[in-house]
Each structure stands twice: as C-alpha cells, then as structure tokens.
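Sample entry (408 residues):
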Amino acid sequence: MKSAVLSFLVLSCTVLAGCSGAASSPGPSDEAAGQGGTGGAAPGAGSSGSGAAGSGATSGGAAGSGAASGGAGSSSAASGGSAASGGHGGTGGGPPVLGDGPDGFAAVEGYGIRTTTGGAGGPVVTVSTTEEFLDYIARPGPHVIQVAGTIALPTGTTDGMHDVTSHKTIIGLGADATLTGGGLKIGLPVDDAITSPPPDAVHNIIVRNLKITGASDDLINIQMFSHHIWIDHCDLSNGGDGALDIKRGSDLITVSWNHFHDHTKTCLLGHDELGAPQDIGRLRVTYHHNFFDRSDQRNPRVRFGEPVHVYNNYYNDNSYGIASTWNAGVVAEGNYFFSVNNPGRVLFEDNDPGRMLARDNTLVDCNHEIEVAGPVVEPSTYYEYSLDSSADVPAIVMAGAGVGKIDQ
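Predicted structure, serialized as tokens:
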C-alpha cells in the first residue's frame, strides 16, 4: 500500500443502522483443561445500535431480544485489542494467554467453556522440524507449541492438511516462524449427518504470530462444530484454496490482527447453501483489525451465521469485501475500504440474500456503496467492545497486524 493512502483519509460513505434479535441454542458441556464451570449464556436482551445518518445509505431495524447459547451462567465480556499494537483497552476475556487473551466471540462463554485459553497449563515446547510439529499438534491434552524457523508440511495422503487436537496454542517465535507447503485442519472429519455439536468436537485452540504460506489446499480450515478458536497476528498468503475457512457448525471464533495478502479466496464462513442444518444458530465469528491486503474476495463471504461482527478492518484493493448471503446476519462497522469494487453485498450472484448493518465505515475510491438490510442481532448482545475511528484504521492496522507485533 502506498504511503499516500494513509494521508488520503477522505471521510466518505458513513453508513449507520442498528437492531438486535435472537441467538442460538445451548451446546454440549465439556470440561476443558483449566476451564471449569458449567457454561453460560450471554445476555438475552438485544441492544439496538443507532447513529446519525451519513452520506451513504441507512438501514433501520426493529430492536428485538433473544436468548444466547451456552447453558446457565453469565458470559465473559471482553473488548480491546493487542497491547503491543497501540493499546485498545478493555475488560479482558479470562486468564491471560502469553501476554493477553482473546476478545470477541472467542471470549464468550458457551459449550461448557468460559473462554479460549489454548494450551495454557500444559507443557511448553519448541519445535523446529516437521516431525516435532506434527507430533505435538496431534497429542492429547494442553500444549503450548512454539514454532522456530521454517517448517515444511508434507502433502502426503491428506492434501497437506494436518489435524490439530483440542487445547493447543501454536505460536511462532520472532517474526520469521513459518509453516509452508501445508495447512492446519481444526475439526473432526466431515459428516453431513451430524447436525448438532458432538461431545468430542475440537475446541480451545489458539494460533498466533505465525506465517502460513504455500499450502496446497487451505492455510487454516475450521470445521465440524469446532469452537473457541482464536487466530491472531498471523500472516496468511498463497494458499491453494481458502486462507482461513470456517464452516460446518463451527462457533465462537475470533480472527484478529492478521495480514491476508497474495490470496484470492480469503475467508469463507459457511461452506455452501446446503449447510443450514449445521450452520443456523452458529458460525458466530468476530473479524477485527485485520489487513485484507489485495486479498481479492471473501473478506469474509458469509452464509447463515449470525451475528458475524466485522469491525475496524482495513481493506486495500479488493474486488469485494464482505458478502452476506443465505440469511446471514453481519454487522460491519468502523472499517476502512480503499479501492474496493463492492465493499459489502447482500445480493450476491444467485444466492439467497443476507442481511447487513453498516455504520461508521469509510469508503475511498470504491465503486459501490455498502448494501444494507436488517435486522441483525447486535454483537453487544454477547460481548463488550470499543471501536477505533474508521479514519484511523489504516495506520492502526498497518502498525499492528501480522507477525512480529506481539510480546512473548
């Protein structure tokens, strides 16, 4: 991105709307290592967003209410970003993991887990070979796996996708820790006959400060009701298919401070139009402070999930930013779109339409407005958060997103 972009902060196309609605049903109980508790539900009453209309289109929606998932108890509210990248203050989301913990949906209580802690409490190991890495990501129980240098992942019989078991933190050391040639698969094998979260669903995984590039298939694939996943401060590029795909009933996930680049099909959320039995009431994902840098499309491309919270991301030179289809509900706020043909769409190809609320976004040199339709459940139903001004997002995100930006 040219430096001139940072100075060309033309505040245009502010789109404001708000509403709330119902959430999903409880998941199964699972006592995660170091977690305890009986699960919890986020507050049931929806809060409605509002604001003065800007120069773009405005969509209103009626306020509603609804019970959230996770059993009895109260949710863990969290807000704020990485302290290493400019300090976005908040209340925290549970016990700290390697300096700070997750926010957004990864910090929301549900499925018997209070928040995402990854491998906290387990042994800390450093791996520098393919054999060591594949051994530790497949082991049972919590592990903090530190990646040193470049590790080549084989294609073999798995098309280069390698399973990660529950309760793992995978974190790169320094700014050059890299996985190449293959990707990470977080989830049980695909089975369309399973339409509710199984008790052995993969869960409680953190991937941070890691470059993943050159995979023959996906860079990261999350599937089959996996939950409590945090993908943070990674550099994802040049995958054979998706950069970060989330599908088949996966839930309570945060994607934050990542640099997506040199990739076409970036972030798929919901695998296809037949996924309703697994996906409705799930696919609750937070995307914030990511740099979608010439990542052509699917930033993200959403089916069925609600709410999907897309805030304070920087979009640079994309064919489209966000697509909400098949009755998905997306809240897009505080994002900065530069040279994006379609920043946000709810009418997309031959798909059933989705819903999207847009507010406080900045659009510069874009060919279309953000398409809006409501109502959509508000993310504030589940967690607290604070927004950076959209005009400041390019500088904040470029300074903080990607690898080598967190304290270890």
